[in-house]
Design a protein that fits this description.
The chain has 452 residues and is an alpha+beta fold. It folds into three domains: 190 residues, Alpha-Beta Plaits, CATH 3.30.70.270; 53 residues, DNA polymerase, domain 1, CATH 1.10.150.20; 164 residues, DNA polymerase, Y-family, little finger domain (Dna Ligase, domain 1, 2-Layer Sandwich), CATH 3.30.1490. It is built from 18 helices and 14 strands. The two termini are 33 Å apart. It binds a DNA duplex (18 and 18 nucleotides) through strand 3, helix 3, helix 8, helix 11 and strand 11.
DNA sequence: TCTGGGGTCCTAGGACCC
DNA sequence: TCTGGGGTCCTAGGACCC
């Protein structure tokens, strides 16, 4: 890998006003962290993902990519392409800790940055104008720090907006050509003339937000290239892809992208999805599984200091069709028994004609804790004949009465680890006292409902 | 070859209120 | 008695991103 960046054709450092937006993307992030932690993996094809029949690749080292292994590829396909592939299950705590260090280095450059997942950030360099910062110099220095302090490689793109910054970072990276790895320039700045050139040569699929479904619709309309989108009537396009998508695509085709770098993006939902190695059959198995999901979600809500009014369940059947059910309560919940009560009522309203391969429980519509206390104690409706409404009322009662127990369990977990006690849901269902359970679980942690 | 788990945003229809 | 249109909230589903 070359130590310094090759630039664009002009080979000079633009002003902040010419290239205000920076995008950094860590190379093969999960796989790279695994290789750092186990140097015997260096040079071998490594992937992180699900190893079973239903697993997919979440991250592939460049060595694995030489064989055609890619993110989102089913693991069985990856093994067919690369029989020597080392498939690792993934350690998300580890990746999160690397991600925090990555963000720290970006923050040293500017506080105006926006993470996307664990391994990418956008940054707005405009506040650095007065300091005389030059974008390419800043990008080269940031890249050097990421390499020096984290021992991770990355690509950096610079452009007039998010659209071009992201396209640029993609072109800054190493690529595989005819089974050989070719180093990338590391830093790429999109000048005005490059913008025109890229827009003219790009296919629609390269645009942010155009996936397989939208690409197929556009192709039917004869719109295969970005330059085709620049000529299309937005209202006509809206009839096929929706108003928001049409406006976005036409703007992109003209090189315009009004998305700002948003520094504080509060989370809007928290959920837990699980694809089962063997599909579940029938409501009762699904309900049992949903309690563990509810516990994971409730724990996550509390660790983020959130209470949620909306609970959603999603069931995916063996034929890959999905159905969802959601309910918005008049109050918020963060208790596993409360979440589980609502989830069970929602799951009961689904017809199980097929086996269930995936179950998800999500929580959204967050509100402030103080706001929630009002709602919880306001009025007590009579018993209802609607099962969902009844579940909601049970859920509220649990949310209130389990508060003390829940806080206690959280404290124990904080001191002794997450598996030191069973979930409040398990304890409640079994009717066994918290204290007598502690010892057993402390010495035989059951990790089956651990988040990945 | 056959599709994970964490999320975000958009759309359309219905209920309800004014 | 029958009717309008806008705004907001909720639900279900779909598409996309990393």
């Amino acid at each position: 890998m070359r130590p310094f960046a090759a630039l664009n054709s002009l080979s000079e450092d633009p002003s902040v006003d010419e290239a205000p937006i920076l995008h950094v993307d860590l190379d093969a992030f999960f796989a790279s962290v695994e290789i750092l932690d186990d140097p015997t993996l260096a040079g071998r094809p490594v992937a992180v993902g699900g190893g079973g029949d239903r697993g997919v690749v979440a991250s592939a080292s460049y060595e694995a990519r030489r064989y055609g292994v890619r993110s989102a590829m089913p693991s069985v396909v990856a093994f067919r392409l690369c029989p020597d592939l080392v498939m690792l299950p993934g350690r998300f705590d580890r990746y999160e800790s690397y991600s925090r260090e990555f963000h720290r280095l970006v923050r040293d450059l500017t506080p105006d940055f926006e993470p996307l997942g664990l391994d990418e950030v956008f940054a707005d360099l405009r506040s650095l104008r007065r300091l005389g910062v030059r974008p390419v110099a800043a990008a080269v220095a940031l890249r050097a720090r990421i390499r020096g302090e984290l021992r991770l490689e990355c690509g950096v793109g610079l452009g007039r907006n998010k659209l071009f910054a992201k396209l640029a970072s993609k072109r800054s990276k190493p690529r595989v050509e005819a089974g050989r790895l070719v180093a990338g320039p590391g830093v790429v700045w999109v000048s005005g003339e490059l913008e025109t050139q890229w827009l003219d040569e790009m296919g629609v699929r390269s645009l942010w937000g155009v996936g397989p479904a939208t690409a197929a619709k556009l192709e039917k309309l004869g719109l295969n290239r970005v330059r085709d989108l620049a000529k299309v009537d937005e209202h006509t396009l809206a009839g096929h892809v929706g108003a928001a998508m049409a406006a976005t695509l036409v703007a992109y085709a003209h090189g315009e992208d009004l998305r700002e770098v948003v520094t504080d993006r509060p989370a809007k939902s928290i959920g837990h999805d699980q694809t089962f190695a063997r599909s579940l059959t029938g409501l009762s198995e699904v309900v049992v599984a949903s309690r563990a999901h509810a516990a994971v979600v409730a724990r996550a809500l509390r660790s983020h200091d959130r209470v949620a009014r909306t609970i959603t369940v999603i069931v995916r059947f063996d034929d890959l069709t999905s159905v969802s059910r959601s309910q918005t309560l008049s109050f918020g919940v963060d208790d596993e028994v409360a979440v589980a009560a609502v989830a069970e009522a929602l799951l009961s309203s689904i017809e199980y004609r097929q086996c269930v391969r995936l179950l998800a429980v999500h929580a959204s519509t967050f509100l402030e804790r103080s706001e929630n206390q009002m709602q919880l104690t306001f009025g007590l409706e009579a018993e209802s004949s609607d099962p969902r409404e009844r579940a909601a009322l049970v859920s509220r009662d649990r949310q209130i009465s389990h508060g003390a127990l829940r806080d206690a369990v959280d404290e124990v977990r904080q001191r002794f680890g997450r598996t030191a006690v069973a979930t409040a849901a398990e304890l409640h269902e079994s009717g066994i006292d918290v204290v007598t359970q502690r010892g057993r679980h402390a010495f035989g942690p059951d990790t089956k409902d651990e988040p990945r």
